[in-house]
Request: fold
Amino acid sequence: MRGEGRLKFIGVVEESGDVSELDIFPEYCEGLYRLEDFSHIMVFYWLHLRDNQAHRSMVRVVPRRHHGAPEVGVFASRSPSRPNPIGFSVVELLKIESCKLLVKGLDAEDASPIIDIKPYIPRADSVPEARAPKWTLSGPPT
Amino acid sequence: MRGEGRLKFIGVVEESGDVSELDIFPEYCEGLYRLEDFSHIMVFYWLHLRDNQAHRSMVRVVPRRHHGAPEVGVFASRSPSRPNPIGFSVVELLKIESCKLLVKGLDAEDASPIIDIKPYIPRADSVPEARAPKWTLSGPPT
Reply:
C-alpha cells in the first residue's frame, strides 16, 4: 500500500509578514465563495524550499526555534523539514478582495505555493486543554 | 508559478471508527519518537476515494452532512471533494505501540493513506472564539 499523491498548486503566498497576502489562481477563485463567514481559516502550503531529498529524509529533528527542546521525531515537531513538506497555519482572515486574501499569523516564506484552504471550525479544531510539552511554550507558536 | 507537489504516503488508516488505528510504515516509524508527549495530534491523510478528475474539479459544494447549509465555495467547506484531496482531523492520541497509533475522532475511510502527522499545540492551533456560520453547528463536527 505504498504510493504517491499529486498536488496541484492553487495559489501562492505573495507577501508574508505579520499580515500576509495570498493569491488564489483564477480557476480556483470561486472556491472562496462565503469564506468570509469564518473569522479564521487553515492554510495548507508547500514548503518549497525544503522540497528536496535531504530535507525530506529527516526522521528526527531538534526544534531549534524552541529553547531547550530535546531531539524528537519529525512527526512530534512542526519542523519544515519532513517527509512531505506540508506547511500548516491557523490564521485570522482579515479581508477577501476578489482572488486575494489578507491573513494574520501566517509563518510562510514568500512564494510558497498554497495547496488547500479550509475553514476553521472551533467545534472540530479547537482543543484548548490539549496537553503539550513545555518546550512548545518558548519561541514562536510553531 | 503553477506547479505540482509530490506526496509520499507515510502510512495507512488500518481501521477507522470511533477509535481508529493508524499504521506508520517502518521507514517513518522513528518519526513518532516523543509524540506521546502530546495528548492531541493532527492527522493529514489522502482522500483516495476522491482522487479523480470529477471530484478534484469541484469549486462549489453544498455541505450535505450539515442541515441547512447553503452552497459555498469548496475552500469554505470541509468537503472531501476538493482540488487537492487532503483530509485533516484533530484527534486524541490514545496509544502508541511500535508503529501503530490508536486515535479517537478520526473521520477517515479505511485504507486512506496518511501523508503527515503534526503535534497539536494549543497556543498555535486552538482558537475557541473563532467565528463560524450556524450551519457548522449541526451534524458531525466537520
Chain B has a mean pLDDT of 95. DSSP finds two helices and nine strands in chain B. Residues 45 and 87 of chain B are 5 Å apart (CA to CA).
